[in-house]
Amino acid sequence: MSKPIQVRGLQSRVWPNVLRAVGILVLIGAAWVLVMTKAKAAGVLLGAAGAVLLAVNEIVTRVKYFRRRWVIDNGSGFTVIDMLGEQPYRDNQVTDLLLEIKDVYSAGVLKALVRRLVVWIEGRPDPVEMVNRLPAGTDDPLLGLIQRLWKDLGDRCRDRLERGGALEGDGWTLTRQALSVHDKAGPREVRIGELAEVGVFSGNLCVWKRDVDQPIIKISPSGRNVPILQSLLADWLKQQAQTVQAAPTPRAVPPSANGRELRPSALGRVLFERRKHTPRVLLIVLAVLGLILGTILLARRDLRGVGVVAVGLAVAAGVGVFFAPASVFQCREQGVRQSGLFGAKEVRFDQTQSFTYHAVRMFINGVYSGTSFTLRFQSPAASITYVAQLKNVDDDLEQLRDHVSRVIAARMAGELAQGKPVAWTPNLMFLPEGLSYRPSGFFGRKEPQVLPYNRVRSFDFEKGTFRLWSVDSASPVVQESASAANFFPGFFLLVSMFEPSEGSGEPT
Fold first, then answer.
1. pLDDT of residue 234
2. Is residue 263 very low, low, confident or very high in pLDDT (cuts 50, 70, 90)?
């Protein structure tokens, strides 16, 4: 039997003790005021404040103390220990599950995860909530229990659906025939045979319908039973793809990588998009400045003509605000697309020659103000640059970075297998016999040297700098910025040459 894991209630007594000490100091100060001064009213008020602080702190502490809860994983069930005593439950008594994970950042760096698991149990009137704050890089003590409960409930839901039953969540219902949703956008239904894709993007579980680029349904992944919904839909889509591939009728459209048809759109479905209203903001600024300048000039008789022109331009800019298109960056199945005031550009993943990903944490007067992200895609036909400033990491952008890097790395690996030199960054190159690098020198980079691949000892990242050691050196022989052009594709190629334990991870 595993050890009890506390999942609710008072876990640290640091703040209660601090507040208690503050309350006692306030009472001591009140006593000093009453004895040593004539400000009796101030002393009484100060003493009352200290007493209230102690009383509130004690009440809150006692409430948290009595609300404490522990969970024990028994292998085929679990035991809940709280003020009601010990209550054992079997896995098959669980009727619904909700899993929510929130990232906790400090100055743009991931510091911890807050995991919230809510379990609805047959015969229990209230759900069991389990919340833990987990420092980044540590394992969840309830991971085994969580995985087992999801699998057991998922298997039972599959059987229920096959027998004609339904699976329900927050605002949606799934049957073997259709997925029905009731939310702010109104009721919608998608037949299972019309499904085209399912996946998590932009913080939502997205469901696509055939011949529609945009997701038809978006559901919060932290809702009740959503992981089971995603798993069921994915399994049914695989079954549909296998049925289509086994059919003797010829296909009119070539299949995509997952076996389903590509629609006429060259880049496929929209996975996620980011919008900016920069043109509208610029027009608003021009309208305001033009109006102010025009008003000033109209007051002068000799410049009234210029003032009329300025006011006219301000009005035109104001009208343009309602018609100026937003700048839209889209990630699609086969590439990226950027559209705005001056038209649209597209870059396919399989035609991307160079890809650069740059993330810089920004500080103002020592205070973290956000992280600036820059993605640059270069193909023979077009170049797309996307820039955004965010408070924390964007999971969609990181997944896009890794996907594009793997596509380019696979092409680089093919060229290297043919005995061709493959450029990595301006200072690094893959050769058949080893890695060519230009060491750092006092007056800049030195002449290229070649390190055989079997002499590479390890590599890692430190504050956005890639470092690589040879077996003959105690200090890194290669240091390169992760923001260098085409760095990530080459990094993925390097990782593929070694066992996973050779690399210590990805950049932060």
1. 92
2. very low
